[in-house]
Each structure stands twice: as structure tokens, then as C-alpha cells.
Amino acid sequence: MEYQVVKEYQDAPKSPIQIVKGEKLQFVEESDPEGDWPNWVFCRGINKEGWVPKQILVVKNREVTVLEDYLAKEHNLTVGEILVQEHELNGWIWSKKLGNSEELAWAPLNHLCAV
């Protein structure tokens, strides 16, 4: 599926969290289930921290075990760009920019319109 950027997004983190299956992290907080971004957990590890999809975690007390590899890399978006979706999760799409590169990254659906 393709999407067109309808609202600029320039908040991509400079050092996105990257985690691997089996890694142990510290639970910091969970996103508001009634807010714009449900099902995200803010985690902290050695020299890393960031938001991670709840679906790929086992949370027990304050410890988190990662169930699959994940990279929180995000696209910076300019109005008019076209993105090609690989998959969707928690209000974001894992995608590449059409005709620009093969680089995959996340983009927020509330900045996009299906074309």
C-alpha cells in the first residue's frame, strides 16, 4: 500500500533504539492506551532507551524481555513524498520512500493519507 505525506514530520530520533531477541531491558513507562500511541513501552538498556512495541515484549515486574529484533528508526517526512508500506504497527508504518531509496524506517500514520 502507498501513502502520501500530508503533514511534515521532523522528529526522528538521532539515536533510535535497536534491540535484539532475548535482550533484557528495564521497563520505564507505558503509553496511554486511550492516547494517540497505544501499545508502546518506553524501555531502557545499556547505552540505549526508547519506545518499543508492546507486542514484541514480555514485561514482568520492571524487567522486559525482547521477543524479536526491532529498530526504532524513523523517516523525516516532507509533504508530498510517497511511502510504500511493508507493514503497520500501533499507528505507524514500516516503509520506504518511493523513488528515493531502499531505506526502511517508521512513519506515523497521522501524517499520511492512503493513495
UniProtKB/TrEMBL annotation:
Keywords: SH3 domain. Residues 1-62 form the SH3 domain. This is SH3 domain-containing protein. It comes from Vibrio bivalvicida. The lineage of its organism: Bacteria, Pseudomonadati, Pseudomonadota, Gammaproteobacteria, Vibrionales.
